[in-house]
Design a protein that fits this description.
By secondary structure, the chain is mostly beta strands. The protein contains 3 helices and 43 strands. Its main location: membrane.
């Protein structure tokens, strides 16, 4: 290969392996879409599988390293992998990471209060998140909105369903989510967007990418977002600010360096819990969708600063060496009144009160070293990746209670509480001071046994240590030298269809506590998956997967039993013999020129050792569809789209003044529409209609015997200008 070109990535299509070579002065992001690259006498015609989706106007995914660390196409990965690309994020006007995850195949959302939401896949909560492949665990109880980041800085989100203990150390059988940040573009580009919507929603975005040197080796990108608005919930307002900057430089030695910083500040005025589901007489409440359980002075904030450096060195033999480091600094705050219990139907009296003022600080460091590339053995070419990672997470949460017990809270009528003065807060005391250190080394190889047969084999060795002072009690939890094997077989039936089977072991530490306040032992078990993946057209992929997971030490809530000394914290017991079985199907990509599609169906049933269904707040079935079409001919300036998401019933056993009762949300469907009109090469306008038929549904069912309505019908209008 001439010295002025370097290895960028391996590209595979229809089971064929090729090398993409680009001029050294070009950026990896310069390759996009279907193209013919002419380099002297070398010609490569291929569906380009470069991972970055921003310059590919498609829902079709590119290569992914989230499952195995190897740059494999979706078809080559022996697990279910879905990607929500930049084009789909843009078409659906998905403003936050939570909005994106709600559209991801197989992922469901459950709300706890105004700011805390959780996501699940295959019947269990998702606990494993990554940024550009660096592990970022999410605190469970102390989440405080730590899953709501602005979407403007992300190129795409990759979701690997099933256990991913090979790279994360936590073999969670639900999913691992990888947020891939945007990178500098190969040429100058700038965009400004102004949007408005119902409930005084306002959104302003600016995005500038520019080369910093004449040869194009160094480039930078800056993104700024301000998003504000009231809510359909009474007395609730959100403000979000996001700033992101990254510099990328390519050295003549084949080394690529990225330096970046990200700042996000989320502020909610009037934050609070859900509304009570029952009156004091045991009957269901019937509040409208603006029902609130908050106060004028309650508030929440989440301030996070992330800095990162990512160094990649490309060797002449096709190997890539990577060193990446990330530092996160987070500050959290929540002061509020929680009204519990059941209001009298006539007077509104009788609810209990709990005032709290939380303040917290969290620092997190991630370090990751990897090496991956091809090697030859027995006359065939194979691939190998080895890596080591370490994550340190320091958390200090404090709480202040009212110095005098707090004022009287008055009545709660028609979904509104009486005005309540903010109490005089007492001294802040530490309630959770913890340091968590995870480390692990892994190796994974993709062996080409024969032209149609490949084996993916891997092993990880993990260490996990938690030092904690929990409400004054010192505790130390440690797990060392935990082995997590991974095995997959991929067989190419022909150039377009492959089948696979994979096996992964499960090792997942958990934050759930027994009645004494001790953490439960980690969940252990096995994950099996069998699937078929097919390239149905040039940019249209179909995937079908059958899966089963078996788990022990699964946390099960003990009815009406709180953690000792913590009446607001549910106690759990470990249960053996938990299983999840199901099927997933996905069709994604391009049906025809200008016509994009993302469609998926999921069936997942979780049961305990007694064959009773568990985790019933996660839907057993889901169907998601969104499609968009760029009109042709005289109407080519118009792009229209629409879709729907449907989920089956969710339910739980909630406390009622007359005892335990079943409450739930029946199956429902939410439909959306969009239209974008391009006035010129620079100016376009987009209209999104969400919840077109104004479907009423609950996002929260039974959390502390309360509920939360989903968002009513609303419109968003945005003007976009490209400079």
């Amino acid at each position: 290969m001439p010295s002025k070109y370097r290895y960028l990535s391996s590209v595979r299509h229809a089971g064929c392996l090729g090398l993409v070579v680009v001029p050294l002065l070009s950026s990896p992001q310069a390759l996009a879409g279907d193209e013919v690259i002419q380099l002297g006498t070398v010609e490569i015609t291929s569906r380009e599988l470069a991972a970055d989706s921003e310059q590919r106007s498609s829902y079709a995914p590119g290569a992914s390293t989230t499952a195995t660390s190897l740059p494999l196409s979706i078809k080559e990965t022996p697990q279910a992998v879905s990607v929500v690309t930049h084009q789909q994020i843009e078409d659906q006007a998905l403003g936050t990471s939570g909005d994106i995850l709600q559209q991801a195949p197989g992922v469901s959302m459950t709300r706890r209060d105004s700011n805390r939401v959780s996501f699940s896949a295959r019947g269990y909560g998702i606990k494993t998140y990554q940024f550009d492949g660096l592990l970022t665990p999410i605190q469970g109880f102390w989440n405080f909105g730590d899953t709501e980041w602005d979407s403007a800085i992300y190129d795409r989100i990759e979701v690997v369903r099933g256990a991913t203990g090979l790279l994360t150390g936590a073999g969670d059988p639900s999913a691992s989510v990888n947020f891939i940040r945007k990178k500098p573009l190969p040429e100058f580009a700038a965009n400004a967007s102004v949007g408005v919507g119902r409930w005084d929603k306002q959104r302003i975005t600016a995005d500038v990418s520019t080369p910093l040197s004449e040869d194009g080796r160094t480039a930078a990108r800056v993104i700024a977002v301000r998003d504000t608005g009231d809510s359909y919930v009474h007395n609730l307002r959100d403000e979000r600010e996001t700033y992101y900057g990254i510099i990328n430089t390519q050295l003549a030695t084949g080394t690529e360096i990225s330096l970046g910083v990200e700042y996000q500040h989320n502020q909610t005025d009037g934050s609070g819990a859900g509304f009570p589901l029952f009156h004091a007489d045991g009957g269901r409440t019937d509040f409208d969708r603006s029902a609130a359980n908050n106060t004028d002075w309650s508030g929440f904030f989440n301030e996070t600063t992330r800095g990162f450096v990512d160094i990649n060195h490309f060797l002449d033999n096709g190997w890539r060496l990577r060193a990446a480091y990330s530092y996160d600094d987070g500050n959290y705050g929540l002061n509020y009144l929680f009204r519990g219990g059941y209001p009298d139907r006539q007077t509104g009296e009788g609810m209990t009160k709990y005032f709290a003022n939380y303040r917290g600080h969290r620092s997190r460091q991630d370090l990751h070293f990897t090496a991956e590339g091809p090697f030859e053995l027995f006359g065939r070419e194979h691939e190998l990746a080895v890596g080591w990672m370490r994550m340190e997470d320091d958390l200090d949460m404090t709480v202040a209670l009212p110095a005098d017990g707090g004022p009287d809270i008055g009545r709660y009528l028609n979904g509104r509480g009486d005005a309540v003065d903010e109490p005089a807060w007492g001294q802040f005391n530490s309630n959770d001071d913890s340091k968590l250190v995870q480390s692990g080394a892994y190796a994974v190889t993709r062996l080409s046994v024969a032209d149609p047969l490949h084996l993916v084999l891997g092993m990880r060795l993990s260490n996990w240590d938690l030092e904690q002072v929990y409400y004054g009690e010192e505790r130390d939890y440690s797990y060392s030298n935990e082995l997590t094997p991974y095995a997959g077989v991929v067989y190419d039936i022909n150039d377009r269809v492959s089948t696979y089977v994979s096996y992964t072991e499960i090792f997942q530490t958990q934050n759930n506590r027994d009645p004494d306040g001790d953490l439960l032992d980690p969940v252990t078990g096995r994950n099996y998956e069998l699937g078929v993946k097919a390239t149905l057209a040039e940019q249209l992929d179909g995937n079908l997967a059958l899966f089963r997971s078996e788990q022990d030490n699964l946390a099960e809530a003990i009815p009406d039993v709180p953690v000792q000394g913590r009446p607001d914290t549910q106690a759990y017991r470990p249960v053996d013999g938990g299983t999840v079985e199901g099927v997933e199907a996905e069709l994604v990509g391009r049906l025809a020129p200008g016509w994009s599609l993302s469609a998926s169906y999921t069936l997942a049933t979780a049961r305990d050792a007694d064959d009773e269904r568990v985790n019933t707040l996660h839907p057993r079935q889901q169907f998601k569809l969104f499609t968009a079409y760029q009109l042709q001919g005289d109407w080519r300036a118009l792009r229209v789209g629409g879709g729907a998401r449907w989920q089956s019933e969710v339910f739980t056993r909630a406390n009622n003044p007359n005892g335990k009762v079943r409450v739930g949300q029946g199956s429902y469907v939410v439909a959306d529409l969009m239209a974008r009109y391009t006035f010129s090469d620079q100016l376009s306008a987009q209209l999104n209609v969400n919840n077109l038929f104004d479907r009423e549904y609950l996002e929260q069912v039974g959390f502390y015997n309360q509920g939360w309505w989903g968002e009513p019908r609303n419109l968003q209008l945005a003007l976009n200008y490209d400079f």
